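Sequence, please.
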């Protein structure tokens, strides 16, 4: 832990779910953690408490990642507080649960918001974070994508399209940011979070994953495992989209 005690990770959308699990995982391993949220302030403060309970420093920053000016301001706050950034986890995302055959329900407004947060948001964060990461000696970027971006399923067509584009952008960014910064993505299948539980009961989730080789949905901590590995457990892996879905897509 002594080797990483001064290192800093910024995790977008870390108020709940996968983002919170990532925040705790990095904190447990000695990283100072920037907890970002858009609207869920109470939950974000709970995440901050969990981080600080690991005897590291935490910083709470409200910013909509789809707003470029807000993202740039967030990185200024990170630099002012810590003077460095070693890991960026692009976790913030949004969607609407819309039947893929219901074209009319997927309005232009919904399309724009999904792409703004899920695709442009990670780009805004990478663009704003890169100078500070290079100043810190390099680092790692991990985006939380989805198997929806590989197979075209998922909560909506726009969501799947946004994640497919994020997967491609991961490769593009890896090419231009190496060797100083590695860029990878994690592609989860169903994850047992508040987001999914809003539209699916525990029984439905179990039924959906019963035929997967691992016979269960992911927990947020499973995805945090993969994020932490890509960020810290390898020095040569870049431009990869690691599927973590219990074997469904193999």
């Amino acid at each position: 832990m002594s080797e990483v005690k001064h290192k800093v990770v910024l995790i977008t959308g870390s108020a709940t779910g996968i983002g919170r699990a990532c925040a705790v995982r990095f904190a447990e391993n000695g990283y100072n953690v920037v907890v970002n949220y858009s609207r869920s302030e109470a939950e974000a403060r709970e995440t901050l408490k969990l981080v600080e309970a690991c005897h590291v420093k935490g910083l709470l920053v409200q910013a909509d990642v789809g707003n470029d000016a807000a993202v740039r301001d967030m990185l200024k706050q990170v630099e002012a507080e810590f003077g460095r950034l070693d890991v960026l986890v692009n976790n913030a995302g949004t969607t609407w649960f819309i039947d893929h055959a219901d074209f009319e329900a997927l309005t232009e407004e919904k399309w724009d918001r999904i792409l703004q947060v899920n695709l442009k948001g990670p780009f805004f964060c990478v663009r704003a974070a890169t100078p500070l990461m290079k100043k810190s000696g390099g680092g790692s970027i991990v985006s939380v994508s989805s198997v929806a971006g590989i197979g075209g399923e998922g909560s909506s067509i726009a969501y799947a399209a946004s994640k497919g584009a994020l997967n491609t952008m991961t490769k593009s960014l890896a090419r231009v940011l190496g060797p100083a910064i590695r860029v990878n993505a994690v592609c989860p299948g169903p994850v047992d979070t508040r987001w999914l539980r809003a539209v699916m009961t525990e029984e439905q989730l179990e039924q959906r994953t019963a035929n997967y080789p691992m016979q269960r949905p992911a927990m947020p901590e499973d995805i945090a495992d993969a994020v932490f590995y890509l960020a810290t457990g390898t020095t040569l892996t870049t431009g990869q989209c690691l599927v973590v879905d219990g074997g469904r897509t193999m």
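The domain at 8-189+222-244 is CATH 3.40.50.720 (Rossmann fold).
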